[in-house]
Amino acid sequence: MIIYHKASDITDYIQALRKKGLSSGFVPTMGALHRGHLSLIEQSNLAHDITVCSIFVNPTQFNNKEDFNKYPITIEEDIRQLEESGCDILFLPDTDEIYPRDFKEKQYELGSLETRLEGAYRPGHFRGVCMVVERLLSITQTDTLYLGEKDFQQCMVVRHLIQTEKIPVQLIIAPTVREKNGLAMSSRNMRLNEHEKEIAKGIYDTLIEMRNDIQTTSPEVLIQRSTLQLTQLGFIVDYVAITDEQLNPVDTIGTNRIIGLIAATLQGVRLIDNLTLSPLN
Ligand code: AMP
Asked: Which of 96, 159, 187, 257 is deepest in the core (most CB within 10 A)?
């Protein structure tokens, strides 16, 4: 695996590969890698000649300084895992490389995607996500971008960004990888002990219950019941939501896709997860 620190170096290298007719997939991450990240690398490996991963803890998407400061950094272990997974190129920039002095901050029109759910609880977060994704895509110029459905709203925001900014990249959204007990893998899980991880799986259990009951119980009742259940387990619940793909709340169940989304904090660690509630195929 080749490691690049400089934006211009990786751009030149990938351009040269493109000229040779090689295709490339890109997996942006903030490091502290786990099987969820590696599943994206594997998907890219299967579809492309070259897989590029980036590790960059993007300061502009953290609305909470403490969360940024506590974000786990395990770079040597990350490099080992990437080498083992067959990743070809790692982009490991510092902040100046992503946001050079002449970097022009843009405003993005994200509509309600920016104000609902994660957007409401993390003001400015999706603007930071758009800034870094647009910059990383312009540096790497890869054919396909791989994102995890675990961050459902982020996927919708990036899809919107690609469409509105006309970025020439294909977006693939990959399924959420979970621990054996159902807990969605997340770098933030590293901050939980084994006992807390057992409690944390309550988020997944709640989503499964929501899925089981969605045909017979109203979204309003499901949301109330789930919030109470999570609170009793010791979570501080930001939201339990039942929405369509555009994150609009739904109150009746039709044939369109419906998603259950939860954000809740356990022992100071904020966790998010989601599950398709309907239709089930
Ligand atoms: P992060 O390092 O948390 O910014 O995540 C980098 C990418 O990995 C994002 O596209 C995430 O959605 C994806 N990802 C994180 N956790 C998982 C998971 N458990 N399963 C699948 N993809 C994931």
From this structure: 187
For residue 149, what are its two tokens?
A: 């459905």
Q: Is 274 in the pocket of ligand 1 (CB under 6 A)?
A: no
Q: Are 179 and 132 in contact (CB under 8 A)?
A: no
Q: Enter the DSSP assignment of 215.
A: T
CB of 55 sitting under 6 A from ligand 1: no
Q: Which residue has the tokens 């933030």?
A: 188
48 is catalytic: no
Place of tokens 């039942």: 242
What are the Cα distances from residue 263, in Å, to 206, 229, 238, 251, 271?
12, 13, 5, 20, 6
The H or E element spanning position 40 is helix 35-47
Measure 190 CA to ligand 1 centroid, in angstroms.
14
Report the nearest atom of ligand 1 relative to the CA of 175. Answer: 21
Residue of the CA atom closest to atom 8 of ligand 1: 37
Tokens of 153: 């709203």
* Model pLDDT for residues 163-189, shown as the tens digit of each residue: 999 999 999 999 999 999 999 999 999
Residues 4-21: tens digit of each pLDDT: 999 999 999 999 999 999
Catalytic-labelled residue, pool 37, 48, 125, 160: 37
For 177-184, the CB contacts below 8 A with 24+ separation are 177/34, 177/35, 177/36, 177/39, 177/148, 177/150, 178/204, 182/208, 184/36, 184/150, 184/271, 184/272, 184/273
Nearest to 13 by CA among 89, 95, 93, 99: 89
Return the exposure string of 96-118: e unless at least 16 CB atoms fall within 10 Å of the residue's CB, then b: ebbbeeeeeeeebebeebbebbb
What's the CA gap between 168 and 105, in Å, rounded? 21
Q: What percent of the chain has pLDDT over 90?
A: 95
